[in-house]
Description:
alpha+beta; 3 helices
Amino acid sequence: MKSMKKVEFVIEAVYVNRLIKLFKKHKIYGYTIIKDIEGAGGHGVRTADDVSDAFSNNYVFTVCEAEQFKDMEVDIRKFLEKYGGKCMLIDVMLLLGEKQRQESINLQYSGKVN
């Protein structure tokens, strides 16, 4: 298992591509998007039954090293100030399959990864 950070966002659908660009800027290429989520927050109740998804909320998350998060924290704050939304940061343990675990170990010993 490996200690990582799970970075979760609830943002309006129209801003998802901008968030993905932010991830890529910080060399984070893996993420998950769950579209048309429902809930209540600062803008009141949001339902997933709108005719258009332009004003719907999406849930986006990624998992990264703690250092990667530190590197992009300022950009995340700027993103939230400009576009709104919520960001939650969670400490997680990433369970790797045997092949992934061996690849990670090999990279660590080769000096390519911390």
